[in-house]
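User: Could you walk me through two proteins back to back? I'd like the raw sequence and the structure tokens for each, with a short line separating them so I can tell where one ends and the next begins.

Assistant: Of course. Protein one, sequence then structure:
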Amino acid sequence: MHKPDIYLGREVAVYKIEEFLGEGGFAFVYRAKDKSLGVDMALKVLKPAFAHDEVFEENFRKEAHRAAKFRHPSVITIHYAGKEDDIVFFSMDLLETGLADLIAQGAMDNDAIISVASDVSSALQFAHTHEGGIVHRDLKPDNILFDAHGNAIVTDFGIAEVATNYTAVTGTTVAVGTPKYMSPEQARGRKVDARSDIYSLGVILYEMATGDTPFSGADWFELGRKHIEEPPEPPTQWNPDLSRDLEKIILKCLAKDPDDRFQSAAEIESELDSVSRGAGSTVVLPAATVKAPPIEERGEKREERERPSPVREEPKEKESSGLLVLLLLTAVLAGGGAGGLYYTNTGGFRDFVRRTIPGFAGSRAYV
């Protein structure tokens, strides 16, 4: 097992690797200095075990080049990909505040949810329809970052394709995803399309609205079963201030059958725009979309998740998973959910993020 500090101080191309930021299933992420420009970048470096696998390395570099062609304001910009000696890497913009950081502070208000959801939906629509289309496969809060203007930026497009292509070429079963955010079809090991990303977005929106994901479990298999079989509880049960129109959008994203979800991210964008303009949502939910527990049970659960006063507090430390690579039946659980803290949003969500960014140096970005 190689430790991430093996690359610290190394120089590749125009970059000097200076600080370890985090890791996923098959890559380390570092802060690196671009010596030619004097600016900091994020460097994603394949772990040695994968860098020495020619098929995996080739797919990694190919997908990095493919993702680099994606030029969109809500998609991370990849600047360079290459290999020097034993280091296989690509560089991208360094963004240090992630959605996971904000969710760790508690449930978010309607304007915040609309802002992030609109940016992410736009990024998904672009990725799903350009350059042959890329399905993200591992959309989660850790892969949604913010720029200096408070815009949401999606990272790691194409990276999950690496494992998929590796399986196709070698026959070695490698599935990629994070159990809490997997679609039912992903959990079943079936072929996925753009609608799988829409389900994952629904999980993220639910978490933004309530401070927790719709499903939890003692192990990966229990989580997978719940994604496949159990309808989610209405998010307004935990956050009565959540717009009913937003709730319908979230629940449609979370439909078990892909045919019952939005069929494109553009449809989500359109609904969000309608809600933001005060025109309401036209979403009609299929039957049995949500679980409605008895009134007594709801009362008990509300006590368990007592809503605190609407003030910002210091961020709670939140355990999180990186990019999970599931080899055969090996699985690692994602971390626990956030509490129910609410923050005040007096100046608009983008202004809130812009003011908050300096306090989040060294966040868990890109993992």
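----
Protein two, same layout:
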Amino acid sequence: MILSVYRRLKLILQRFLVLLGSLTLFIFLFCFIFLLNSNESQKISLGEHDNVLLTLNLSGEIAETANDKNPFSILFSGYTGGTQGLYIPDIEKNLKKVANDARVKGILVNVNNLVGSFSQYDELRKVFDDFKTTSKKSLYFWLGAADTKTYYLSSVGTQVVLSPLGSLIIPGPLSQLTYLGSFLKKIGVGFDVIKVGDYKSAVEPLIQDSPSNFASDNYTSLNKTVLDYIVNQIMKSRPFLQKDSLKKAFKDSILNSNDAKNLRLIDDIVYEKSFKHNLLSIHEAKSVSFEQYFSHFKSKESVLPSNGDGIALIEAEGNIYFESSSYGAMITYTNLSKEIAWAKNEDKVKAVVFRISSPGGDANAADNIWHDINELAKVKPLIVSMGGYAASGGYYIASPAKKIFALPTTLTGSIGVFGVIPNLSKFKEKYGINFHAITESNRKSLFNPGEELTESDVRIIKKSMLFVYDEFLRKVSLGRNIEIKDLLPLAGGKVWTGIQAQKIGLVDNLGGISDAIYEAEKIAGFHPFPGEEVSVPLYRWKPKITSLIDCFKNSQNLRSCFSSGQQEVMKVFSNKNPDDLLKNRIIKSVEQFMLNPIQMLFFEIK
């Protein structure tokens, strides 16, 4: 009886799972087909003689890396709106296409809640500036309101207008710091900090109530350098401005629309729809969004995978660790080493650009990455492009490069080491929570947060840190060809802007990722004649399944997604062409999924 009930329950469960699996698959396929066709509604009809005003809304987060390693981001990119963010190389590539279209008379840009570092804004501004210079097209910015970064970006425009009740809140570069020293002491939490480098200030907020003199001097120097830079850049775009008036505007910090217009920081005060209507009338143009324009543009071209010699791009963003965790963007040795090995061994990769945006992290992980990068640099030209920051461990892994490019506002250097060890001895007394460490080690207090470190503990930790620091100096000295005695005044944990770092020899050139890529192409021999336009493939490492899906999306012929060897093997074993074989493989996988949905939730296309 019990067995019979059990069998019936098992049968009901099996049927339920088959039904659930079938329903899930149906919904997935329906959504996928719907998404693939949904962009048809965005397509527009553009005649050969139509005048166009493109509209571009900049919002969300500026992405430091391309989100093209996740199969689902590839499958649905362009349809879901996703969280990929604004990727500057894509914007640059698209603007180059726009520049060559005589129908486009200008671009109206609306900056709304755009999230990014000063360096990312600066790199994006340079992209717009290059577009304006080379295309001779008008670039209009409408602002609802603006902070320092937003105004700095928009100041590159041919015309900048502000909403009537909008304000410019422009204090310039600003370091907002929170110090928890007294608060943590009140609850009995302390930290034993051991560091090498007076300027190594990242840990100060945990143990102090205000920045040290070293930190204050460093912050002041960085902010002054960045302010001078952005003032000069704004004046290049708006040469009628007076330098003293512009600096005073940053000092005053808060300007209403009338103040901003009187100081000529903006050109007009007008509502967005009125401004757009005026531009459409002036250019006798139709309004077309960037999404509509490139939907129309993409429908006329077929993107096939590149197979020729080219450049590899490796992107690394976040804190440095050995392995992945769930805490935001990060650089992990286990993942990055795969990309480095691929770039080193791939025959069609003739040079490598290594994009770094990292404040540092685990010294051991950084050293292992340095080793792999150094080995890569021995066999292929390696160019580093620094993002918003490439400091401490971020600079460590950059040092083997043949050339280092930094943005003017990049924060880099910070050559130093520190360690933080929790000290809960007061916390234990205050709350009666006790800690015990049972060990034969002489470092018993080091492993017990309820005990104070002994002098012996501090001595042995300091010894280890000095060893790491000496290795840091040695490897930077080796990579940058700077004597250690000359490197010492530049180290000690001091942070430098890209402008300062170039002057002292920590970086070679000021420029963004496109400049680094062009330099790699030149070194690899792709530009033998100055001024000659040569299209060079740019490769990124991707998991095999991601590469295959990417190819399926962009190719009209599935056969092109397989190597010639794979195609021949398929023909031998199937007597069918690869397109039919793949179709049958997918149908078979669907059938298997419906029969056993649990086992087939994840499957490979080989």
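The chain is about 45% helix and 20% strand.

Let me know if you want the two compared in more detail.
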